[in-house]
Amino acid sequence: MSTTLGYSGSFARAASAAALLLACLATPALAQQATLVGVLGSKALLVIDGNAPRTLGAGESVSGIKVVSISGDSAVVESGGVRQTLRMGDTPVNISPTAGSGKQRLVLKADSRGHFMNSGLINGQVMRYMVDTGATSVAFSQSEARRMGVQFENGQQIMIGTGNGTVRAHRVVLQSVRAGDIELRNVDAVVVPQPMPYVLLGNSFLNAFQMTRTNDEMVLEKK
Predict the structure, then answer these.
(1) 102 and 91 assigned to the same domain
(2) DSSP run (H or E) holding 213
(3) By residue range, what is the domain housing residue 61?
(4) Which CATH number covers residue 206?
(5) Which of 75, 98, 107, 215 is the most exposed place for a label (fewest CB within 10 A)?
(6) CB 62 within 8 A of CB 68
(7) Per the domain annotation, does 15 fall within a domain?
(8) What's the gap between Cα 168 and its chain centre?
(9) What are the residue boundaries of the Peptidase A2 domain, all occurrences included (predicted)?
(10) pTM beyond 0.70
(11) Per-10-residue mean pLDDT for the chain, 223 residues long?
């Protein structure tokens, strides 16, 4: 893709240095893998790319990853303009800069059961989600709705099919759903009475993305 010109002397050295600099600037940054392994008061204990754990407070950085905020058992980190919510117990998360493609993207790793799970935000509240391409909408329990401050009681009542039969649910519109650095607004969701261990991230969110899966890695790229 590049062309080498046969200059000599100092001009050639200067041209080579400039070409090297341009090549470095054009090379996309590689995704980094981050894991939250603990929260110690106001500090997050992070493992970056499998290295030894590092203790960081809000505003502190290591290996190009900055801790933005810490709350409960979760932390928001940023790298190359990409923000991710990490939660203790989640699988390692790839933080993938978007500057090379110009598109927003999220990279997820499957857990030991083959599920793609991570932490995100609904209406600004931290939640844990599982990607579910078979679910029509984002879905979560009434108890989770109350925890996140989602007012569902006045939502449209509908009947939906579940693994345990047909149940009555409430349809709501979420102000925002955020996964990684990608936030969608006015997302349809259903709230069910049965307990659920996590939020199902269904097609009312996923349809905004081009999805690619390779082995244990899933890439969601904003359309």
Answers:
(1) no
(2) strand 209-214
(3) 30-95
(4) 2.40.70.10
(5) 215
(6) no
(7) no
(8) 31
(9) 127-205
(10) no
(11) 39 39 38 80 83 87 86 84 79 58 76 90 91 94 96 92 82 93 92 94 95 90 88
